[in-house]
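fold-stage: in
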Amino acid sequence: MNRTTPSLMQDRQIRKYYTFLLTFCFLLLITAALFCRQLTDSAKSMLLSHDEAVASSLIDQGVPENIIAKALTDDEAGQTQTGADLLEKLGIVPSLDTQFLPHLHSFRNHAWYSTLTALLPICLLLLGMSLLFLHKRDKLYRHASSIINNYIDGDYTHRLPQTDEGTIYQVFSSVDRLSTMLQAQNETEYRSKIFLRNTISDISHQLRTPLAALSMYQEIMENEPDHPAVIQKFTAKTELALNRMEQLIESMLKITRLDAGSIVFEKRICNLSELVSHAVNELTTRAASEYKEIKLEGSSEGTLPCDPSWTIEAIGNIVKNALDHTDANGTIHISWDTSPVTTRIMISDDGNGIAPEDIHHIFKRFYRSRKSSDTQGIGLGLSLAKSIVEGQGGSISVQSTPHVGTTFTILFTS
């Protein structure tokens, strides 16, 4: 994104300070002009007073007025004796201290007084305005430093001031964007830690039961070495417990990888009919052994851009859930349809349905209704299916009526 290069004059405080400096320089020039005029008038007054004193002294000595006038107005040196020689005889030389020249001494004192009177207020004004500007800047920097220290401590409740333009506010904006990135990173790390903790807690909790069962089965078989029927019975139970643990660990690893974003779905155009057929291929044997039927209905021409292996697993998990909650002689009906913008897959059963208090929790990990405690499954199939579908940009919803049946709808939009 292109940004306009920041300028010092965009900063309102600096702009005001520069305006003050320009006004100050203008006033200083006017003051200097008035001061020069005042010094000129003072010098003129001093020279007139000196000439008046000289003229009065010469008149008292009887010198003719025309000679006095010529002496006061003639600036050319004489041929026989210069004015400098006469002044030197009188002791009036350039090295003579000013205090021995009354008129000049008075002029100097007046000049110093006028200079201080004119320049002191101007200097105080410049100093005051500069201190005010620096005070505002210092206040701004202290405020920004306090907020940045809060960022360092993990407190992002306040933001740096960005109510104006200028270089410093551009810096504040960049720091704020950096703090937002750090906040998002911290929140992600925190969620990751919570997720890891919950995952470990879930796995340990779910493994505790089959591990305890395995320990009990092992103890029984050790105590009944002479009873083959007992050994055979608990060997079968041990196999079931091990299969349950394997299924649990495999499902948890898949969900963890999906939630962590470490799985990249490799999408390609898949035939919907073939996709669904592969999903239920391994479940038809189970359905037949449980006296249940799986029916497929949909166009053989429909396609879906998806990762086939993961999508097959998602559909299969939903069908397994339907088999778990459907009684003998029940039917699982799978249909699909497509439009220019959507692809829909519906999986329906005529089983026990889902209670209203449970329907909002069925996609949670390890969630099992009290009414389904005697059914198969470990409570991860629907959660895994939801993660797979949503990871590919789709959505999954459910509608159910107790004792009538349940319908899961998978929806993908183009």
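fold-stage: in (second)
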Amino acid sequence: MNFEFVELGEESFAFRQTEEGNVIAEITWTMLGDVMAVDHTFVSPDLRGQGVAKKLLDEAAAYAREKEYKIEPICSYVVTAFERYDEYNDIKI
């Protein structure tokens, strides 16, 4: 999947995938200084169970590393992923 970087306004951003004008996968965050406060992850029911949420988080993590940001997990998926996977230790606050 190729996720599109989207500016949502007011320091809010997303990586998302759309299909026929509908959002089918998305991770959103608000910038707080140099911290990405990740507050929402959505995956269409048709895509669930295929690792799409992890791919979204990986995209956000790569962006954070590139910009030298940290991630504050707010949404339940990211909280769980940060507990489960050590690969995000370098970007945890």
